[in-house]
Amino acid sequence: MKTQEYRITITAKADVTDKAVSEWLPAALNEGEFHYKLVKIYSTEIEPIDKSDPNNKYLNDMDVSG
Q1: How many CA atoms lie within 13 A of 24 on its CB side?
Q2: pTM above 0.85, yes or no
Q3: I want to staple 19 with a disulfide (CB 3.0 to 4.6 A). Which of 13, 23, 42, 60 is the partner?
């Protein structure tokens, strides 16, 4: 098996009505192709984003555009 290390960053809007992302993300990473293609998960980082911060303006722009 040939492997390579990657840092994968996913920026997403998530439904947190019933569970926080930190509660379901670890299990989700063990589903589907994630389970078969990821050899080892070294860590996960979950950080809320302030959409009012000018650095994150693109998020509001994307919500408006669809």
Answers
A1: 8
A2: no
A3: 23
